[in-house]
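Progress note, sequence design subtask.
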């Protein structure tokens, strides 16, 4: 069973998360078990748009965990046959956004929910630390990016704001978020966002920095963000999942 061991006087100094053996259930057997896909089981299918930072997070997580998958390119614009606004895709994802992941006979939406499902069912390459304080810090960074920065500069929001104000709007919210994020990383980072282990925080950071550059945000005031982004972009999993390496990337950006 999963347990918490409290360490230090009255358990106030630190706590350690005790994981079950990898061969054991993650939770009660009636709730959730590790998944070992059958040899004839279909590969996970990821509905992804090349420049979507949310799709990029899931591509990185799948790649880091060595999970083979297929991509169904799904346009965020109302062009072509395979876009998010079709009735067919609404049945896959009622919010008509990307990513969506079909896996283990289920259809999952939202990048953070998908990453947690992968972590709970396929934990052999962990993206959450065992230490509960570090886990909390990873989740803090994930939420800062995925709840407090990215949604405010999402393409659907910018479309509503209007072309005349969209760039200023995106820059304002990314800058506001990065001021906080850089301070958090100053206290948590080692080689990566939280210590020296790759985590969901790193998976979320790189796509958001890409967005910041896309919207011409000055990154000079954020040395921790810039350093970590440079470190992470050198890793094969991050390189292969880059938007410019995707099958639906427009030719003018492909491979650059």
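Output:
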């Amino acid at each position: 069973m999963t347990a918490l061991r409290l360490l230090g006087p009255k358990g106030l100094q630190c706590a350690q998360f005790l994981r079950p053996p990898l061969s054991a259930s993650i939770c009660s057997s009636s709730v959730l078990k590790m998944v070992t896909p059958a040899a004839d089981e279909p590969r996970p299918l990821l509905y992804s748009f090349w420049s979507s930072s949310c799709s990029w997070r899931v591509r990185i997580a799948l790649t880091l965990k060595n999970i083979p998958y297929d991509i169904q390119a799904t346009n965020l614009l109302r062009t072509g046959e395979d876009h998010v606004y079709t009735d067919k895709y609404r049945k896959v994802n009622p919010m008509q956004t990307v990513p969506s992941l079909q896996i283990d006979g289920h259809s999952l939406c939202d990048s953070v929910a998908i990453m947690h499902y992968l972590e709970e069912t396929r934990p052999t390459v962990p993206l959450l630390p065992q230490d509960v304080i570090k886990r909390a810090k990873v989740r803090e960074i994930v939420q800062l990016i995925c709840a407090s920065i990215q949604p405010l500069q999402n393409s659907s929001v910018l479309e509503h704001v209007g072309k005349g104000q969209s760039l200023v709007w995106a820059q304002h919210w990314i800058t506001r978020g990065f001021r906080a994020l850089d301070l958090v990383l100053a206290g948590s980072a080692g080689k990566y966002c939280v210590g020296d282990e790759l985590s969901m925080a790193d998976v979320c950071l790189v796509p958001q920095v890409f967005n910041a550059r896309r919207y011409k945000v000055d990154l000079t005031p954020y040395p921790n963000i810039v350093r970590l982004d440079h470190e992470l972009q050198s890793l094969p999993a991050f390189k292969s999942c880059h938007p410019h390496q995707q099958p639906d990337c427009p030719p003018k950006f492909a491979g650059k």
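Residues 1-31 have pLDDT under 50 and may be disordered. Work on this subtask will continue into the next period as scheduled.
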